[in-house]
Amino acid sequence: MELQIPFNGGDLNIKIALPESNISVLKSKNPTPLRSLDEIVKDALSNPIGNERLSDIVHAGDSVAVLFDDWTRPTPVSRIAPIVIEELKIGGVRDEDIVFVCGNGLHDPEYMTDDLLIGKLGKDIFNGYKVISHDAYDTGKLTFIGVSKGLGTPLFINKTVAEADIKVSIGRIVPHDDVGYSGGGKMIMPGVSDVWSIIHNHSGSHPHQGILNNPLREDIDECGRMAGLDFILNVVHNSREEVLKAFAGDPVEAFLKGVEFGDREVWGAGIEDDADIVIASPGINEDHYFLSAMGCLGVANRCLKKDGTIIVVASCSRGWDEDRYVESSWGPPEDLLEYDYPDLLRLVMSRAWHEPKRQFQALIYYVQHLAKTCFEKNVVLAGAKGFNKKYTERINIKFDESVNNAVNDAIRKYGERAKVIVLTDAFTLPLKQFHQM
Question: Is residue 22 classed exposed, middle or buried when 0-12, 13-18 and 19+ CB atoms within 10 A define those classes?
Answer without folding.
Answer: middle
